[in-house]
Design brief:
- The structure is a single chain.
- The chain has helices at 6-17, 21-24, 61-68, 76-87, 95-107, 131-141, 150-160, 165-189, 195-218, 220-225, 230-244; strands at residues 111-116, 124-129.
- The protein is mainly α.
- It has one domain (3-16, 52-235): Arc Repressor Mutant, subunit A, CATH 1.10.10.10.
- Helix 1 (6-17) crosses helix 5 (95-107), helix 3 (61-68) crosses helix 6 and helix 8 runs antiparallel to helix 9.
Amino acid sequence: MDPGGELAAGRDFFMTNNPHRGRQNRSRPNDSKATVVRPPTTSRAPAVPQTGIVSWETMALQEALAALLLPGASHGYQLVTTLRAELGPLWGTRASRVYLTLARMEQDGLLTSTRVRQESRPDRRLLRLTARGRSTAERWLAGEGSGDDAVVRLAVARVVLPSAFDRLASALAGSRTDRLQRLRELRQEARDGFQLEALDAEIARAQADLRWLATVRDRSDDIVARPVAQRARKARRIAASDTVG
């Protein structure tokens, strides 16, 4: 079953955004390996939510893609290239999952797409945010939400909104401080089983996150001054030419 034609829409995004279509047109957007390695999921929620700063299980891919579109229209290949360039070996999400997410975002009214015909290359879809999509991206870059995807937020902010980088790091630190306080309160009430040790582990992670965020804030000027990776710059130029055309 494919409710709403979601898989077909994702496949269309993949086929019209992938510059290497001839070599990859057998890819399946619903491949179970289309994301980074993830732990087995269960129907029972954990007693204490994950608080690690690099939490790919809770990565807000939709929000990250919307934020990358804030500067203007782009295409899927540029978005994938930018995330790969910024996050390097930590980025393990396949392009097929990205295009599936973009198709879902269009269905949900977060973006619109226009097919761009090309003579010597596969056609592309030029993506633009709607007002709803822009609001989603701006709230995410302002620090709204749990902050478990802090690494991705800061990486995207560095590229699309460097003036807000330090402010975002401060907001994420504030969220993490609140979480640390709640964990300490839970620890005071914990008695049974392995609860104390589990909470100690989460407290240690939250403290490590805060130390890391403090370092990021101290180095924020140097971080935002780093140039965008060459591959990402090339993809941006292609997107700009599509927009002009």
